[in-house]
Fold this sequence. Notes:
Nucleotidyltransferase, domain 5, 7 strands
Amino acid sequence: MDIRYFIGVDISKATAPADRLDWAVFDGKNIVFQSQSANSEVGIRTTLKLIRALPFFQVTESVCCMEHTGIYNAHLLAYLHKLSFPLWLESSLQIKKAGGLQRGKTDAIDAQRIAEYAFRFRDQMRLWQPPRPILQKLASLSALRQRLLSVRQQLQQPITEQDGFVDVTLQKQLTKTCQTSLKAINADLQAADRQITELIEGDDRLKELFAWITSVPGVGPATATEVIVATDEFKSISNPKKLACHAGVAPFEYRSGSSVRAGPPGGKTRVSQHARMRLKSLFHLGAMSAVRMKGELQEYYQRKVGEGKNKMSALNAVRNKLIHRVCSVVHRGQKYDKNYMPALA
């Protein structure tokens, strides 16, 4: 794919009155265009007219690169995809680290850096494709469910913890005061769970994936839903090692000479903190459940701890095994079978 123009867009939340986009176009040598617009269809359309006026501009010979910003890039992605623009979504941390030592920071400068990043790393370009509309609904419902759980915990946990430490009459009063809110949150949670179930049951592909993933011991419906959303139905991530890295489960060594992690060879490796934390948390809960149940994973965990391995490291190994099993059942297109033996060539 020969690219003449690299378009960098920095998406920011302006104080008022609306979101803002900063645009920069790099031709491989210079920034040939720079502008600012509202984050709306009208603002995007107006700016694209100016970009299209650049010499020899062709949509097929350009790429638009931007950072992951959640809902704030929804207008831009939808409109550019409708026009068949090649789109590249990249991690903000990846762009920042690739930029090296930086002096000065404004939205306009950030747009330039994104455009220059796209040019420098054009051989590693990964074009974005929108997930199916039903998957976008599933992602929204899963996020809503997560927020409801968080709110419920914020209300319920302090009351539970202070039981026995405060006056009994006061404790009853506090519990009664929160009761209405907790009932409403629980009702909303049930409604969200019901909608998620209906969404999955009504789609053959989601239903199939859900059945395979939840057949793995220790992997529940919430984990299965988050895995399907995070991997775009295993289209963007299907390799278990990549999924483990994405979930913050894969361990990495961090050592360099005597300045970083000085110590004897064979020092402890650590998992990266740059992970999809919700996915990591769910796999952690799944691993905790798996090691409490009689079976292979419980025996594996106990054996590793008995060999002197740190408990959290052993638990992380169980999380890794769960991820490999999830990817395996999806790859084979079958439910989990503990007696499964791969065919030998």
